[in-house]
Amino acid sequence: MRHYDGAMSLVWFDEPAAPRGEQLSRERIVAAAIALADADVRGEVTMRAVAARVGSSTPMSLYRYVGSKDGLTDLMVDEVYGEIVVPAGDWRTGLRGLGLSGWEAVQRHPWFARLAFSRPPLGPHALALYDAALAPLEAFDLGAAERMGAVNTVLGHVFGSGLALLEERAMRERAGLPTDEDLTDAVRPYLQRITEEGRYPHFIRWANDPARLDPAPQSFERILEWLLDGIEATLVTAPE
């Protein structure tokens, strides 16, 4: 029985269709869609492009494997969730690993950060990830909302950083500014003008300081540690 009629229909209700020969399968379709999204500066994918990549004559032939475009999105997102690892250990080891592994994943697939917000994380890889991240938090006297809040604080940093990466990549492509040096050269005349006008003295003092990015003030890793410090301040060991 299919469950693709509603606005929030889920592909997880159904087993994938049996592959037709060597040409089509759910796995091949998802792999093709991910490759296309990785190659596109905005991470956009169409069913027509996926059909062409897997050698199908029509996009309609894909629907018996993924149900709908939303179903394909669910499968793509869950595949990337499967690349994120929560290492064994205490809560901080687990959440730090979640953050660092998630950041590696969104650098490989920047579109993941956008699509992760568009569908509920209910696939098998996503559920396994949440389960592993929540496990070490059971040792503390936290409510359900607080436990999930700690995990989502880290994932929010991952997804926010991934969205910034996706938008910056699109901006650089659109503006033809592939390197930091290109971007600096492009804005230099404007910075010189506002420096001469003296209207924003504190910003200009920062912008003209040659050491303003040494060390990098907001690396992913540094912000992650700040977040973990904040979470640690709320933890109270659960009573025996």
Any idea what the CATH superfamily of the largest domain is called?
Answer: Tetracycline Repressor, domain 2
Helix content: 55-70%
What is the CATH fold-level name of the largest domain?
Tetracycline Repressor, domain 2
According to CATH, what is the class of the largest domain?
Mainly Alpha
- How is the biggest beta sheet arranged? none
How many domains? 2
Number of strands: 0
Protein architecture, described:
The chain is mainly alpha-helical. The protein has two domains: 11-80, Arc Repressor Mutant, subunit A (Orthogonal Bundle), CATH 1.10.10; 83-176 and 210-232, Tetracycline Repressor, domain 2, CATH 1.10.357.10. Helices cover 59% and strands 0% of the residues. The model is unreliable at 1-7 (pLDDT under 50).
Descriptive key words:
single chain, 240 residues, mainly alpha, Arc Repressor Mutant, subunit A, Tetracycline Repressor, domain 2, 11 helices, 59% helix, Tet_transcr_reg_TetR-rel_C_sf, DNA-binding transcription factor activity, transcription cis-regulatory region binding, Repressor_TetR_C, transcription
Could you write a compact summary of the structure shown?
Helices cover 59% and strands 0% of the residues.
